[in-house]
Amino acid sequence: MEEVVIVGAGVAGLATAVALEKVGVRALILERSNGLRATGTALGLFPNAWVALDALGVADKLAALCPPFERGYITDVKTKATQEVHYPPNSRNGALPRAVYRKVLLEVLAEELPPNSIRFSSRITSIETQVEHGLSICIVTLDDGTIIKSKVVIGCDGIHSIVARWLGLHPPVSSGRSGVRGLSVFPKGHGFDHSHAIRQFVDVGKRVAFFTLTDKEIYWYFAAMCPPKGMGKEADPETIQREVMEDLAKDIPPAYLDIIKHSDLSSLTRTPLMFRYPWDILFGNLARSNVTVAGDAMHPMTPDLGQGGCSALEDAVALGRHIGDSISKHGKLMTQYVGVAIGRYAKERRLRAATLVTASYLTGWVQQDASSRLMRFLRDVFHRFLLARVVSGIAEYDCGKLPSVSSLPSCESESSI
């Protein structure tokens, strides 16, 4: 019997467990891999993410490891015109965007949890609910036959979430684009003076972005409108690297092609860019019978705004806040009340998540499809002036603080269970 079961030890899963720990609730995380997964190499965290990390108590620790970004540059490969984007500090805590190693973020979050909070190599095969003594109980079955009963199940298991499928959410759909990520290593230093900037190059159906992590490492990302020849799922890293350099990104300045040339091949990944229709988020079942979802399990989105990890951290704080408020009112985690708290969490996150998914998709669509005069107009006018304001507002979002329940008794199971 567990208080809360979280499926998935990614950013959303670990952050949710930390948020619950802060409000006095112990969670068991079930992770199918045999260790913390570092797929993706790095991610950009915008000011709204740092508000969430501050609520989780780890912002200062991470900020000390990551230089901030003060601006970005978007260059049109065809016209050579460059748009400069400034990232103002967050009005609440002065936070700026920062690049974070994904593995470091996961490790920092995991360090906040009690020992044995994560059970690795645990793949769930089914989720059920049943009523015991008048109370709804969640039953999770693992592939090794283990059966776990819990008051709450939170799916943080990615875009192909088993929990989301159990809730009845429609599967994510393809955006028609694919993405390649890589980490480039320069043992003697890369020499780029872009420690405070994100650099992007856009072309018809293509976008490539770079930002420095250290004076020797650079993270890069490439997105294309469709999977090119040689970049199938079975393609090896060398084939992917060669295809990007010799065909897809050949028109970007040679200095940036050299970054791709220096890629650590073990870091190269290619994935289709998926998203969930925003109306599925607005009207679908995000919560049912003390079961809900967070992160990509709720709102998979294209990476064009860099809000995937940011929104997952927001989810964690919002969920911890609503459950913490329930505990503050009732003194312990009670099954009959936590369902109400989860419902409030889902209601709060619907519009925010749908907005992020929509804005991310539109940003990528407008930036990368300049094949007609209309699309070029939308990119140069609509995106630069209107959507840019929306993006700025997105980064200003405040997910709130976690309630202080340190003086309350620890959560106990109801005697009737």
Would you give an account of this structure?
With 417 residues, this protein is an alpha/beta fold. The chain has two domains: 2-66 and 102-172 and 276-395, 3-Layer(bba) Sandwich (FAD/NAD(P)-binding domain); 175-273, D-Amino Acid Oxidase, Chain A, domain 2. The chain contains eleven helices and 17 strands. A hairpin with a 2-residue loop joins strand 8 and strand 9 (135-142). It is globular. Residues 3-357 form the FAD-binding domain. This is FAD-binding domain-containing protein.
Arithmetic mean pLDDT: 86
Number of strands: 17
- CATH homologous superfamily label of the largest domain: FAD/NAD(P)-binding domain
Distance between the termini: 9 Å
Count of the separate structural domains: 2
Shape: globular
How would you characterize the largest beta sheet? 8 strands, mixed
CATH fold descriptor of the largest domain:
FAD/NAD(P)-binding domain
SS summary, helix count: 11
What integer value in Å does the Rg equal?
22 Å
Helix and strand content put the structural class at alpha/beta
Level of helix content? 25-40%
Write down the secondary-structure element order.
EHEEHHEEEHEEEEHEEEEHHEHEEHHH
Which CATH class of the largest domain is shown? Alpha Beta
Q: Which strand-content bin applies to the residues?
A: 15-25%
Spans of 5+ residues with little confidence (pLDDT < 50)? 407-417
CATH architecture of the largest domain: 3-Layer(bba) Sandwich
Topology, element by element:
Layout lengths: L1 E6 L3 H12 L4 E4 L11 E4 L1 H10 L2 H5 L7 E6 L5 E5 L11 E4 H10 L6 E2 L4 E9 L2 E8 L4 E9 L6 H6 L5 E13 L11 E7 L2 E7 L4 E8 L12 H12 L5 H8 L7 E7 L2 H6 L3 E2 L2 E3 L14 H23 L4 H34 L4 H23 L22
Parallel strand pairs: 1-2, 1-10, 2-7, 4-12, 10-17
Antiparallel strand pairs: 3-6, 4-5, 8-9, 9-10, 11-14, 11-15, 12-13, 13-14, 16-17
Helix pairs in contact: 1-4, 1-9, 2-9, 9-10, 10-11
GO molecular function: monooxygenase activity
Keywords: Monooxygenase, Oxidoreductase
Family: Belongs to the 3-hydroxybenzoate 6-hydroxylase family.
